[in-house]
Design brief:
Elements lengths: L3 H50 L10 E6 L5 H15 L12 H8 L2 E5 L2 E11 L3 E10 L4
Parallel strand pairs: 1-4
Antiparallel strand pairs: 2-3, 3-4
């Protein structure tokens, strides 16, 4: 009986260590999906607030923002970069299109260096479609840390 007890605990420990990588894989995907959904909820809430403020005026306003990048990193890196870019652009939501200065947007976004986590990226504004559904497309390259 005494000789089987250490073998039992050793088997329990080995089983726990072998099942851990199998359980961690789907959990990481669930965390990434949750982060993407939280970003979408935050954007929609901000969009709703801005649209409610401008319902009195009937001139066309920026209703939604979409950011596209050509970053070939992991999904988590791409999501973090898109979140940083949407943070820069979120003040456009609900703003009348006639009041948006495209040259100011270009000078603000083009050739900008962003820090995302521990990495630095230089974003170049490829094109910007300004309308009720606004689209910004960026070319992204790693930048040296300052």
């Amino acid at each position: 009986m005494r000789s089987r007890l250490p073998a039992f605990f050793l088997g329990l420990l080995a089983g726990a260590l072998s099942i851990w990588p199998l359980c961690a894989w789907p959990l990481e995907g669930a965390h990434l999906e949750r982060d993407a959904l939280l970003l979408q909820v935050e954007t929609l809430e901000h969009r709703l607030e801005r649209l409610q403020e401008t319902t009195a005026s009937m001139e066309p306003v920026v209703e939604s923002l979409e950011v596209e990048t050509d970053l070939s990193e992991t999904a988590a890196g791409r999501l973090a970069l898109e979140k940083a870019l949407l943070t820069l652009l979120k003040d456009l939501l609900g703003k009348p299109i006639a009041q948006v200065d495209p040259l100011l947007l270009k000078s603000t976004l083009h050739q900008r260096v962003l820090r995302v986590g521990e990495k630095y990226y230089q974003v170049e504004l490829q094109y910007f479609i300004l309308g009720p559904k606004t689209l910004a497309v960026f070319h992204v390259a790693p930048a040296p840390s300052p």
